[in-house]
Amino acid sequence: MTDQPYGSDPPARPALRKSLGVFDGIAIAASSTAATTSIGIGLGVTAGVVGLHLPAIMLLAFLPVLGIAGAYARLNRVEPNAGNGYVWVGRSLSPWLGFLVGWVNIVATVAFLAYTTAVTGSALIQLAQDAGLRRVAGLVLDPGSTAQTTALGIVVLAAVTLTAVTGVRTAARLQSGLLVFEYVVLLGFCGYGIVTGPHPFSLSWFDPFAIPSASALAQGLLLTVFCYWGFESAFSVSEEVRDPRDASRAGTITLVTMLGLFLLGSVAFQRVLSEDELVGHGAEGLAYFGERLAAQPLAALPLVALMFSAVASLQAGVIPTARAMFAMSRDRTLGPVWSRVSARYGTPGAGTLLIGALATVVAALALVIPRLADMIMATVNAVGIVVSLSYALTALAAAVRFRSLLREDWRQGLRAVVLPALSAAALLALGGYLGWSFYDSADHFEISPDNGRFLLLTPLVMIASGFVAAAWAKWVRRSPYFRTGEDTPADAPRPIPTPQ
Questions:
Q1: For residue 20, what is the DSSP state?
Q2: Which run of H or of E encompasses 341?
Q3: How far is it, in rounded angstroms, from Cα 439 to Cα 299?
Q4: What confidence tens digit (pLDDT) does each residue in 219-245 have?
Q5: Which residues pair with 139 in a beta bridge?
Q6: Which of 53, 93, 49 is nearest to 485 (CA)?
Q7: Cα separations in angstroms, 10 against 13, 14, 164, 278, 344
Q8: pLDDT bracket for residue 2 (50, 70, 90)
Q9: The whole model's pTM is what?
Q10: CB of 233 within 8 A of CB of 9?
Protein backbone atom coordinates (compact mmCIF):
# COMPACT_ATOMS: atom_id res chain seq x y z
CA MET A 1 0.00 0.00 0.00
CA THR A 2 1.49 3.35 -1.07
CA ASP A 3 0.95 6.23 1.31
CA GLN A 4 0.88 9.97 0.78
CA PRO A 5 2.68 11.58 3.75
CA TYR A 6 1.69 14.97 5.02
CA GLY A 7 4.68 17.20 5.70
CA SER A 8 4.86 20.57 7.41
CA ASP A 9 4.24 22.54 4.19
CA PRO A 10 2.37 20.27 1.78
CA PRO A 11 1.49 21.49 -1.71
CA ALA A 12 -2.04 20.22 -1.19
CA ARG A 13 -3.96 19.12 1.87
CA PRO A 14 -4.63 15.36 2.13
CA ALA A 15 -8.04 14.49 0.69
CA LEU A 16 -10.29 11.47 1.16
CA ARG A 17 -12.08 9.87 -1.76
CA LYS A 18 -15.73 10.92 -2.22
CA SER A 19 -17.74 7.77 -2.87
CA LEU A 20 -20.58 7.57 -0.35
CA GLY A 21 -24.31 8.25 -0.38
CA VAL A 22 -26.90 8.66 2.35
CA PHE A 23 -27.51 4.91 2.78
CA ASP A 24 -23.79 4.29 3.28
CA GLY A 25 -23.83 6.91 6.04
CA ILE A 26 -26.85 5.25 7.66
CA ALA A 27 -25.09 1.87 7.58
CA ILE A 28 -22.00 3.31 9.26
CA ALA A 29 -23.93 5.28 11.89
CA ALA A 30 -26.36 2.42 12.66
CA SER A 31 -23.49 -0.06 12.97
CA SER A 32 -21.63 2.31 15.26
CA THR A 33 -24.70 2.81 17.45
CA ALA A 34 -25.13 -1.00 17.47
CA ALA A 35 -28.77 -1.30 18.50
CA THR A 36 -28.62 -5.06 18.92
CA THR A 37 -25.58 -4.84 21.21
CA SER A 38 -27.16 -1.98 23.18
CA ILE A 39 -30.39 -3.93 23.60
CA GLY A 40 -28.70 -7.26 24.32
CA ILE A 41 -26.26 -5.90 26.89
CA GLY A 42 -27.13 -2.27 27.68
CA LEU A 43 -30.71 -3.00 28.79
CA GLY A 44 -29.55 -5.32 31.55
CA VAL A 45 -26.91 -2.87 32.76
CA THR A 46 -29.39 0.03 32.71
CA ALA A 47 -32.12 -2.00 34.41
CA GLY A 48 -29.69 -2.61 37.26
CA VAL A 49 -29.84 1.17 37.86
CA VAL A 50 -33.42 2.23 36.99
CA GLY A 51 -35.32 -1.03 37.44
CA LEU A 52 -38.32 -1.68 35.20
CA HIS A 53 -38.40 1.82 33.75
CA LEU A 54 -36.31 1.25 30.63
CA PRO A 55 -38.85 2.79 28.20
CA ALA A 56 -38.99 5.95 30.35
CA ILE A 57 -35.22 6.39 30.44
CA MET A 58 -34.92 5.70 26.69
CA LEU A 59 -37.46 8.44 25.91
CA LEU A 60 -36.01 10.90 28.41
CA ALA A 61 -32.42 10.51 27.18
CA PHE A 62 -33.56 10.91 23.58
CA LEU A 63 -34.57 14.54 24.17
CA PRO A 64 -31.10 16.04 24.81
CA VAL A 65 -29.55 13.74 22.22
CA LEU A 66 -32.07 15.03 19.66
CA GLY A 67 -30.92 18.57 20.44
CA ILE A 68 -27.32 17.45 19.95
CA ALA A 69 -28.22 15.85 16.62
CA GLY A 70 -29.75 19.12 15.44
CA ALA A 71 -26.54 20.94 16.37
CA TYR A 72 -24.43 18.43 14.45
CA ALA A 73 -26.67 18.67 11.38
CA ARG A 74 -26.63 22.48 11.26
CA LEU A 75 -22.88 22.72 11.84
CA ASN A 76 -22.26 20.08 9.20
CA ARG A 77 -24.28 22.05 6.65
CA VAL A 78 -22.01 25.08 6.97
CA GLU A 79 -18.71 23.27 7.58
CA PRO A 80 -18.52 19.57 6.65
CA ASN A 81 -15.31 18.14 8.09
CA ALA A 82 -14.04 14.70 9.14
CA GLY A 83 -13.06 16.23 12.48
CA ASN A 84 -16.61 17.56 13.15
CA GLY A 85 -16.78 18.42 16.88
CA TYR A 86 -13.01 18.95 17.10
CA VAL A 87 -13.23 21.54 14.31
CA TRP A 88 -16.52 23.19 15.27
CA VAL A 89 -15.73 23.60 18.98
CA GLY A 90 -12.21 24.78 18.18
CA ARG A 91 -13.54 27.54 15.93
CA SER A 92 -16.55 28.63 17.99
CA LEU A 93 -15.44 28.18 21.61
CA SER A 94 -11.73 27.49 22.13
CA PRO A 95 -9.01 25.44 20.41
CA TRP A 96 -8.26 23.83 23.79
CA LEU A 97 -11.84 22.67 24.17
CA GLY A 98 -11.97 21.67 20.50
CA PHE A 99 -8.88 19.51 20.91
CA LEU A 100 -10.41 18.03 24.06
CA VAL A 101 -13.54 17.03 22.12
CA GLY A 102 -11.45 15.29 19.47
CA TRP A 103 -9.24 13.65 22.06
CA VAL A 104 -11.92 12.28 24.39
CA ASN A 105 -13.86 10.88 21.43
CA ILE A 106 -10.75 9.02 20.32
CA VAL A 107 -9.98 7.69 23.80
CA ALA A 108 -13.63 6.79 24.42
CA THR A 109 -13.86 4.93 21.12
CA VAL A 110 -10.68 2.98 21.81
CA ALA A 111 -12.17 1.99 25.20
CA PHE A 112 -15.44 1.08 23.46
CA LEU A 113 -13.57 -1.05 20.92
CA ALA A 114 -11.79 -2.86 23.74
CA TYR A 115 -15.08 -3.69 25.47
CA THR A 116 -16.82 -4.62 22.21
CA THR A 117 -13.92 -6.92 21.42
CA ALA A 118 -14.77 -8.92 24.54
CA VAL A 119 -18.51 -8.82 23.72
CA THR A 120 -17.79 -10.27 20.27
CA GLY A 121 -15.70 -13.05 21.77
CA SER A 122 -18.42 -13.80 24.31
CA ALA A 123 -21.06 -14.12 21.57
CA LEU A 124 -18.82 -16.46 19.58
CA ILE A 125 -18.21 -18.68 22.61
CA GLN A 126 -21.94 -18.79 23.41
CA LEU A 127 -22.61 -19.86 19.82
CA ALA A 128 -19.94 -22.57 20.10
CA GLN A 129 -21.60 -23.87 23.28
CA ASP A 130 -25.00 -23.89 21.60
CA ALA A 131 -23.44 -25.99 18.85
CA GLY A 132 -22.18 -28.47 21.45
CA LEU A 133 -18.54 -27.31 21.59
CA ARG A 134 -17.73 -26.74 25.26
CA ARG A 135 -14.04 -27.58 25.47
CA VAL A 136 -11.06 -26.85 23.19
CA ALA A 137 -7.68 -28.51 23.83
CA GLY A 138 -8.68 -29.19 27.42
CA LEU A 139 -9.84 -25.60 28.01
CA VAL A 140 -13.43 -25.22 29.20
CA LEU A 141 -15.08 -22.45 27.17
CA ASP A 142 -16.56 -19.71 29.36
CA PRO A 143 -18.44 -16.78 27.74
CA GLY A 144 -17.97 -14.80 30.96
CA SER A 145 -14.18 -15.12 30.97
CA THR A 146 -12.55 -11.81 30.01
CA ALA A 147 -9.35 -13.62 28.97
CA GLN A 148 -11.08 -16.02 26.56
CA THR A 149 -13.52 -13.50 25.12
CA THR A 150 -10.82 -10.86 24.65
CA ALA A 151 -8.42 -13.24 22.92
CA LEU A 152 -11.08 -14.38 20.47
CA GLY A 153 -12.41 -10.88 19.96
CA ILE A 154 -8.95 -9.53 19.11
CA VAL A 155 -8.82 -11.91 16.15
CA VAL A 156 -12.13 -10.49 14.88
CA LEU A 157 -10.94 -6.90 15.50
CA ALA A 158 -7.85 -7.52 13.36
CA ALA A 159 -10.00 -8.84 10.53
CA VAL A 160 -12.48 -5.93 10.51
CA THR A 161 -9.65 -3.38 10.77
CA LEU A 162 -8.09 -4.78 7.62
CA THR A 163 -11.48 -4.56 5.89
CA ALA A 164 -11.88 -0.91 6.99
CA VAL A 165 -8.54 -0.06 5.33
CA THR A 166 -9.90 -1.04 1.91
CA GLY A 167 -12.48 1.74 1.97
CA VAL A 168 -15.62 3.01 3.67
CA ARG A 169 -17.86 1.86 0.83
CA THR A 170 -16.66 -1.72 1.18
CA ALA A 171 -17.23 -1.53 4.93
CA ALA A 172 -20.68 0.03 4.44
CA ARG A 173 -21.74 -2.80 2.13
CA LEU A 174 -20.67 -5.40 4.69
CA GLN A 175 -22.44 -3.53 7.48
CA SER A 176 -25.64 -3.16 5.44
CA GLY A 177 -25.89 -6.93 5.09
CA LEU A 178 -25.24 -7.47 8.78
CA LEU A 179 -27.80 -4.82 9.73
CA VAL A 180 -30.57 -6.36 7.63
CA PHE A 181 -30.11 -9.70 9.39
CA GLU A 182 -29.88 -8.07 12.84
CA TYR A 183 -33.01 -6.00 12.44
CA VAL A 184 -35.11 -8.83 11.02
CA VAL A 185 -34.18 -11.02 14.00
CA LEU A 186 -34.60 -8.17 16.49
CA LEU A 187 -37.99 -7.11 15.17
CA GLY A 188 -39.20 -10.70 14.98
CA PHE A 189 -38.19 -11.76 18.50
CA CYS A 190 -39.10 -8.47 20.18
CA GLY A 191 -42.48 -8.37 18.44
CA TYR A 192 -43.17 -11.96 19.47
CA GLY A 193 -42.03 -11.20 23.02
CA ILE A 194 -44.39 -8.23 23.32
CA VAL A 195 -47.35 -10.36 22.22
CA THR A 196 -46.60 -13.51 24.26
CA GLY A 197 -44.58 -12.33 27.27
CA PRO A 198 -45.86 -13.57 30.66
CA HIS A 199 -45.37 -10.27 32.53
CA PRO A 200 -48.23 -7.77 32.20
CA PHE A 201 -47.63 -4.48 30.41
CA SER A 202 -47.57 -1.46 32.73
CA LEU A 203 -47.73 2.26 31.98
CA SER A 204 -45.42 2.79 34.98
CA TRP A 205 -42.59 1.57 32.74
CA PHE A 206 -42.90 4.95 30.96
CA ASP A 207 -42.99 7.02 34.17
CA PRO A 208 -39.59 8.70 34.84
CA PHE A 209 -40.82 9.89 38.28
CA ALA A 210 -40.99 6.26 39.42
CA ILE A 211 -37.22 5.80 39.01
CA PRO A 212 -35.80 5.03 42.50
CA SER A 213 -33.58 8.10 43.07
CA ALA A 214 -32.01 11.18 41.49
CA SER A 215 -28.62 9.45 41.25
CA ALA A 216 -30.26 6.43 39.57
CA LEU A 217 -31.94 8.82 37.12
CA ALA A 218 -28.62 10.56 36.34
CA GLN A 219 -26.69 7.33 35.91
CA GLY A 220 -29.49 5.79 33.86
CA LEU A 221 -29.59 8.81 31.55
CA LEU A 222 -25.84 8.70 30.93
CA LEU A 223 -25.95 4.96 30.33
CA THR A 224 -28.71 5.56 27.80
CA VAL A 225 -26.80 8.41 26.14
CA PHE A 226 -24.04 5.83 25.71
CA CYS A 227 -26.57 3.58 23.94
CA TYR A 228 -27.40 6.40 21.48
CA TRP A 229 -23.71 7.22 21.05
CA GLY A 230 -22.54 6.58 17.49
CA PHE A 231 -25.20 8.35 15.42
CA GLU A 232 -22.62 11.10 14.78
CA SER A 233 -20.40 8.61 12.92
CA ALA A 234 -22.36 9.67 9.84
CA PHE A 235 -20.72 13.10 10.16
CA SER A 236 -17.21 11.63 10.40
CA VAL A 237 -17.42 10.62 6.72
CA SER A 238 -18.83 13.99 5.58
CA GLU A 239 -15.72 14.54 3.43
CA GLU A 240 -16.36 11.21 1.69
CA VAL A 241 -20.04 11.66 0.83
CA ARG A 242 -20.98 13.13 -2.53
CA ASP A 243 -23.36 15.62 -0.86
CA PRO A 244 -22.62 16.81 2.72
CA ARG A 245 -26.37 16.98 3.40
CA ASP A 246 -26.44 13.19 3.12
CA ALA A 247 -24.36 12.94 6.30
CA SER A 248 -26.93 15.06 8.19
CA ARG A 249 -29.81 12.98 6.85
CA ALA A 250 -28.04 9.74 7.77
CA GLY A 251 -27.36 10.89 11.33
CA THR A 252 -30.94 12.01 11.95
CA ILE A 253 -32.51 8.91 10.38
CA THR A 254 -30.23 6.67 12.44
CA LEU A 255 -31.07 8.41 15.71
CA VAL A 256 -34.85 8.18 15.20
CA THR A 257 -34.52 4.52 14.17
CA MET A 258 -32.52 3.78 17.34
CA LEU A 259 -35.26 5.30 19.50
CA GLY A 260 -37.85 3.02 17.91
CA LEU A 261 -35.68 -0.07 18.34
CA PHE A 262 -34.77 0.76 21.94
CA LEU A 263 -38.41 1.28 22.91
CA LEU A 264 -39.40 -1.96 21.19
CA GLY A 265 -36.57 -3.87 22.85
CA SER A 266 -37.12 -2.45 26.33
CA VAL A 267 -40.85 -3.23 26.32
CA ALA A 268 -40.23 -6.72 24.92
CA PHE A 269 -37.56 -7.54 27.49
CA GLN A 270 -39.75 -6.39 30.36
CA ARG A 271 -42.70 -8.40 29.03
CA VAL A 272 -40.59 -11.58 28.84
CA LEU A 273 -38.07 -11.26 31.70
CA SER A 274 -38.45 -10.41 35.35
CA GLU A 275 -36.29 -7.64 36.80
CA ASP A 276 -33.94 -10.18 38.40
CA GLU A 277 -33.59 -12.06 35.11
CA LEU A 278 -33.01 -8.84 33.19
CA VAL A 279 -30.30 -7.61 35.56
CA GLY A 280 -28.72 -10.98 36.32
CA HIS A 281 -27.77 -12.15 32.83
CA GLY A 282 -25.64 -9.16 31.80
CA ALA A 283 -23.67 -9.86 28.63
CA GLU A 284 -25.73 -13.02 28.01
CA GLY A 285 -29.09 -11.23 28.27
CA LEU A 286 -30.06 -11.44 24.60
CA ALA A 287 -29.22 -15.15 24.43
CA TYR A 288 -31.37 -15.80 27.52
CA PHE A 289 -34.19 -13.72 26.02
CA GLY A 290 -34.07 -15.85 22.86
CA GLU A 291 -34.14 -19.10 24.86
CA ARG A 292 -37.26 -17.95 26.72
CA LEU A 293 -39.09 -17.43 23.43
CA ALA A 294 -37.95 -20.31 21.22
CA ALA A 295 -36.22 -23.67 21.19
CA GLN A 296 -32.93 -24.35 19.44
CA PRO A 297 -31.87 -23.74 16.74
CA LEU A 298 -34.19 -20.69 16.48
CA ALA A 299 -33.16 -19.57 19.97
CA ALA A 300 -29.63 -19.03 18.67
CA LEU A 301 -30.72 -16.37 16.15
CA PRO A 302 -30.62 -13.43 18.63
CA LEU A 303 -27.13 -14.53 19.62
CA VAL A 304 -26.05 -14.58 15.97
CA ALA A 305 -27.55 -11.09 15.59
CA LEU A 306 -25.59 -9.92 18.64
CA MET A 307 -22.39 -11.30 17.16
CA PHE A 308 -23.07 -9.53 13.83
CA SER A 309 -23.84 -6.31 15.69
CA ALA A 310 -20.62 -6.51 17.67
CA VAL A 311 -18.55 -7.22 14.56
CA ALA A 312 -20.17 -4.32 12.68
CA SER A 313 -19.69 -1.92 15.60
CA LEU A 314 -16.02 -2.87 15.84
CA GLN A 315 -15.53 -1.87 12.23
CA ALA A 316 -17.77 1.18 12.57
CA GLY A 317 -15.75 2.29 15.60
CA VAL A 318 -12.46 2.08 13.74
CA ILE A 319 -13.70 4.12 10.75
CA PRO A 320 -14.77 7.42 12.42
CA THR A 321 -11.85 7.37 14.85
CA ALA A 322 -9.32 7.07 12.06
CA ARG A 323 -11.00 10.01 10.29
CA ALA A 324 -11.03 12.16 13.43
CA MET A 325 -7.32 11.54 13.85
CA PHE A 326 -6.83 12.24 10.14
CA ALA A 327 -8.40 15.69 10.62
CA MET A 328 -6.31 16.37 13.73
CA SER A 329 -3.11 15.25 12.03
CA ARG A 330 -3.92 17.46 9.04
CA ASP A 331 -3.80 20.40 11.47
CA ARG A 332 -0.56 19.09 13.01
CA THR A 333 -2.18 18.58 16.40
CA LEU A 334 -1.28 14.89 16.00
CA GLY A 335 1.66 13.27 14.20
CA PRO A 336 1.80 13.02 10.39
CA VAL A 337 1.28 9.24 10.33
CA TRP A 338 -2.44 9.74 11.00
CA SER A 339 -3.00 11.83 7.83
CA ARG A 340 -1.34 9.48 5.38
CA VAL A 341 -3.86 8.63 2.69
CA SER A 342 -3.62 5.31 0.89
CA ALA A 343 -3.09 5.97 -2.82
CA ARG A 344 -4.87 2.71 -3.61
CA TYR A 345 -7.94 2.98 -1.38
CA GLY A 346 -8.21 6.72 -0.68
CA THR A 347 -8.50 6.08 3.08
CA PRO A 348 -6.29 6.90 6.09
CA GLY A 349 -4.86 3.39 5.92
CA ALA A 350 -1.96 3.70 8.36
CA GLY A 351 -4.14 5.44 10.94
CA THR A 352 -6.84 2.78 10.63
CA LEU A 353 -4.31 0.03 11.34
CA LEU A 354 -2.91 1.95 14.30
CA ILE A 355 -6.38 2.43 15.80
CA GLY A 356 -6.92 -1.34 15.64
CA ALA A 357 -3.55 -1.89 17.30
CA LEU A 358 -4.32 0.60 20.10
CA ALA A 359 -7.69 -1.04 20.79
CA THR A 360 -5.97 -4.42 20.94
CA VAL A 361 -3.52 -3.15 23.56
CA VAL A 362 -6.32 -1.64 25.68
CA ALA A 363 -8.36 -4.83 25.40
CA ALA A 364 -5.37 -6.81 26.66
CA LEU A 365 -4.84 -4.39 29.57
CA ALA A 366 -8.51 -4.80 30.54
CA LEU A 367 -7.66 -8.33 31.67
CA VAL A 368 -6.93 -6.90 35.12
CA ILE A 369 -10.72 -6.84 35.58
CA PRO A 370 -11.51 -10.55 35.88
CA ARG A 371 -15.13 -10.76 34.80
CA LEU A 372 -16.69 -9.57 31.55
CA ALA A 373 -19.70 -7.96 33.26
CA ASP A 374 -17.37 -5.91 35.48
CA MET A 375 -15.40 -4.73 32.47
CA ILE A 376 -18.57 -3.66 30.68
CA MET A 377 -19.89 -1.67 33.65
CA ALA A 378 -16.58 0.13 34.26
CA THR A 379 -16.18 1.06 30.60
CA VAL A 380 -19.76 2.17 30.00
CA ASN A 381 -19.79 4.46 33.03
CA ALA A 382 -16.52 6.10 32.03
CA VAL A 383 -17.44 6.51 28.37
CA GLY A 384 -20.91 7.84 29.20
CA ILE A 385 -19.45 10.82 31.08
CA VAL A 386 -16.87 11.82 28.44
CA VAL A 387 -19.32 11.34 25.56
CA SER A 388 -21.80 13.61 27.33
CA LEU A 389 -19.05 16.22 27.73
CA SER A 390 -18.18 15.98 24.02
CA TYR A 391 -21.84 16.27 22.98
CA ALA A 392 -22.41 19.23 25.31
CA LEU A 393 -19.41 21.19 24.00
CA THR A 394 -20.45 20.57 20.39
CA ALA A 395 -23.98 21.77 21.13
CA LEU A 396 -22.59 24.89 22.83
CA ALA A 397 -20.45 25.53 19.75
CA ALA A 398 -23.62 25.51 17.62
CA ALA A 399 -25.40 27.87 20.03
CA VAL A 400 -22.48 30.32 19.91
CA ARG A 401 -21.97 30.14 16.16
CA PHE A 402 -25.63 30.70 15.27
CA ARG A 403 -26.57 33.10 18.09
CA SER A 404 -27.29 35.90 15.60
CA LEU A 405 -30.35 33.93 14.45
CA LEU A 406 -32.08 34.82 17.72
CA ARG A 407 -32.34 38.39 16.45
CA GLU A 408 -33.06 37.52 12.80
CA ASP A 409 -35.58 34.67 13.04
CA TRP A 410 -36.81 33.45 16.42
CA ARG A 411 -37.99 30.09 15.03
CA GLN A 412 -34.58 29.32 13.54
CA GLY A 413 -32.96 30.70 16.69
CA LEU A 414 -35.02 28.33 18.83
CA ARG A 415 -33.82 25.30 16.85
CA ALA A 416 -30.24 26.44 16.29
CA VAL A 417 -29.44 28.13 19.61
CA VAL A 418 -31.91 27.47 22.42
CA LEU A 419 -32.43 23.71 21.99
CA PRO A 420 -28.70 22.89 21.65
CA ALA A 421 -27.93 25.13 24.66
CA LEU A 422 -30.58 23.39 26.79
CA SER A 423 -29.31 19.96 25.69
CA ALA A 424 -25.75 20.94 26.57
CA ALA A 425 -26.80 22.24 29.99
CA ALA A 426 -28.72 19.02 30.71
CA LEU A 427 -25.79 16.77 29.79
CA LEU A 428 -23.25 18.87 31.73
CA ALA A 429 -25.50 18.85 34.80
CA LEU A 430 -25.98 15.09 34.54
CA GLY A 431 -22.27 14.44 34.16
CA GLY A 432 -21.40 16.70 37.10
CA TYR A 433 -24.04 15.19 39.35
CA LEU A 434 -23.03 11.64 38.47
CA GLY A 435 -19.34 12.45 39.01
CA TRP A 436 -20.11 13.80 42.49
CA SER A 437 -22.30 10.79 43.33
CA PHE A 438 -19.47 8.45 42.29
CA TYR A 439 -17.03 10.30 44.55
CA ASP A 440 -19.46 10.45 47.46
CA SER A 441 -20.42 6.78 47.22
CA ALA A 442 -17.05 5.46 48.46
CA ASP A 443 -14.61 6.41 51.21
CA HIS A 444 -11.56 4.79 49.59
CA PHE A 445 -10.17 3.94 46.16
CA GLU A 446 -9.82 0.48 44.65
CA ILE A 447 -9.75 -0.90 41.10
CA SER A 448 -13.28 -2.27 41.00
CA PRO A 449 -16.37 -1.38 38.97
CA ASP A 450 -18.27 -1.20 42.27
CA ASN A 451 -15.98 1.55 43.59
CA GLY A 452 -17.31 5.03 42.79
CA ARG A 453 -13.91 6.71 42.99
CA PHE A 454 -12.48 4.29 40.45
CA LEU A 455 -15.45 4.98 38.16
CA LEU A 456 -14.83 8.73 38.52
CA LEU A 457 -11.07 8.45 38.03
CA THR A 458 -11.43 6.78 34.62
CA PRO A 459 -13.16 9.69 32.81
CA LEU A 460 -11.02 12.22 34.70
CA VAL A 461 -7.87 10.55 33.36
CA MET A 462 -9.32 10.65 29.84
CA ILE A 463 -10.01 14.38 30.17
CA ALA A 464 -6.70 15.26 31.86
CA SER A 465 -4.72 13.38 29.22
CA GLY A 466 -6.48 15.51 26.60
CA PHE A 467 -5.13 18.75 28.08
CA VAL A 468 -1.63 17.25 28.27
CA ALA A 469 -1.81 16.21 24.60
CA ALA A 470 -3.18 19.65 23.67
CA ALA A 471 -0.25 21.36 25.41
CA TRP A 472 2.16 19.16 23.44
CA ALA A 473 0.38 20.01 20.17
CA LYS A 474 0.45 23.76 20.91
CA TRP A 475 3.97 24.25 22.23
CA VAL A 476 5.95 21.34 20.79
CA ARG A 477 4.24 20.71 17.45
CA ARG A 478 3.36 24.43 17.16
CA SER A 479 0.08 23.58 15.45
CA PRO A 480 -1.66 26.51 13.72
CA TYR A 481 -4.94 25.06 15.03
CA PHE A 482 -4.40 26.84 18.34
CA ARG A 483 -4.67 30.21 16.61
CA THR A 484 -8.47 30.08 17.06
CA GLY A 485 -8.89 26.92 15.04
CA GLU A 486 -6.89 28.10 11.99
CA ASP A 487 -6.43 25.57 9.17
CA THR A 488 -9.24 23.32 10.33
CA PRO A 489 -11.34 23.30 7.12
CA ALA A 490 -11.05 20.25 4.89
CA ASP A 491 -9.81 22.43 2.05
CA ALA A 492 -8.11 25.82 2.11
CA PRO A 493 -9.46 28.09 4.86
CA ARG A 494 -12.59 29.90 3.74
CA PRO A 495 -15.29 32.05 5.34
CA ILE A 496 -18.14 30.14 6.94
CA PRO A 497 -21.42 30.98 5.17
CA THR A 498 -24.43 32.16 7.11
CA PRO A 499 -27.09 29.37 7.29
CA GLN A 500 -30.29 29.98 5.41
A1: B
A2: strand 341-342
A3: 42
A4: 889 889 888 988 887 787 776 666 767
A5: 136
A6: 93
A7: 6, 9, 26, 56, 20
A8: very low
A9: 0.85
A10: no
